Predict the structure.
Amino acid sequence: KQEVTQIPAALSVPEGENLVLNCSFTDSAIYNLQWFRQDPGKGLTSLLLIQSSQREQTSGRLNASLDKSSGRSTLYIAASQPGDSATYLCAVNNQAGTALIFGKGTTLSVSS
Amino acid sequence: NAGVMQNPRHLVRRRGQEARLRCSPMKGHSHVYWYRQLPEEGLKFMVYLQKENIIDESGMPKERFSAEFPKEGPSILRIQQVVRGDSAAYFCASSPSEDSVVEQYFGPGTRLTVT
């Protein structure tokens, strides 16, 4: 059974700092991995999708990497801003390639 | 191109009533997924539907919950005889195909409160 874990559960940093969020999964036979952002009381915004054959994806100040063999992904945020404050969720496709399996998220707070 | 639409955004029901949650997928998308986010927990998959078919309902509670995606109109998640434990945010996502490398696009969610 696939399980997704995100560490840390919460993170507070000053503005301008570079930071890394971690995601691990127990079954390396994933099809793809998505990183989402969720603001309080809001829906999910897709940030990056990494296909199983890829090792990383970049969008602006965000870079996500994938190491299937070790069951890990990282989301790197460069030059953090107060507007980056949100909960970041990692999700993988299960073995059937349909439903997403989510971690519980990392809640990021960036202070000005 | 409008995103995934969900309504209502907030729904309050008394114990024992029925809750009907609606989801209109993005234009051109024929695959719909429902997820539930309980307080202090992660999102959990409930059901995956294509037009007129339930493909995977492995995450649906065995009783009181049902889902449909008719040929015309939105997908409906129906909860009968709601209990306080059903209070949660329910999210719908859509994708254009069953291809596993395709992103799922999420709606804003419906927040159900059972009093």
Observations:
- DSSP finds no helices and eleven strands in chain B.
- The two ends of chain B are 37 Å apart (CA to CA).
